[in-house]
Design goal:
Helix content: over 70%
Order of helices and strands: HHHEHHEEH
Largest sheet: 3 strands, antiparallel
Number of helices: 6
Number of strands: 3
Radius of gyration: 18 Å
Strand order of the largest sheet: 1-3-2
Structural class: mainly alpha
CATH architecture: Orthogonal Bundle
CATH superfamily: Winged helix-like DNA-binding domain superfamily/Winged helix DNA-binding domain
């Protein structure tokens, strides 16, 4: 499986900054392009809907994997200049090129796990709230 072969910095990148398939596709695309691009241009190149592209870009900006440039429309996006991030992204691009399907499956599995964990936490919190109220 691809997750066993991932370098630790790539694994951390997938756990902390790249959390969806759309985000994965965008960071790989921007890493290969090595220039700033607008959301519409990115979405068009990747055949992603505009809303999904914008949402993924916003997540990547918040995670500091992508930098938003420009102050007016259309905004441009480029990979952040952090050397450690660049090294991790280079590894991610290699893993993507070698095992695209498995990498996408790994990102999906992690997203599902985060969702399950969130639901379980909400469920357990509801019992805690009820216990305090009844208590």
């Amino acid at each position: 499986m691809v997750d066993e072969a991932l370098r630790p910095e790539v694994d951390a990148l997938l756990g902390n900054q790249v959390r969806s398939i759309e985000e994965l596709e965008i960071v790989v695309h921007l890493s290969k392009e090595r220039r700033s691009r607008g959301a519409l241009e990115i979405g068009s190149a990747l055949k992603l809907p505009e809303g999904a592209t914008v949402t993924a870009l916003q997540g990547l900006v918040l995670a500091k994997a992508v930098v938003q440039t420009g102050e007016s429309s259309p905004l441009q996006y480029v990979i952040a200049e952090d050397p450690e991030l660049r090294a991790a992204l280079d590894g991610l691009v290699r893993a993507y090129d070698e095992n695209r399907f498995e990498l996408i499956m790994l990102v999906s599995e992690r997203a599902i796990q985060r969702l399950r964990t969130g639901v379980l936490k909400m469920f357990s919190d509801s019992f805690e709230i009820k216990r305090r109220r009844d208590g």
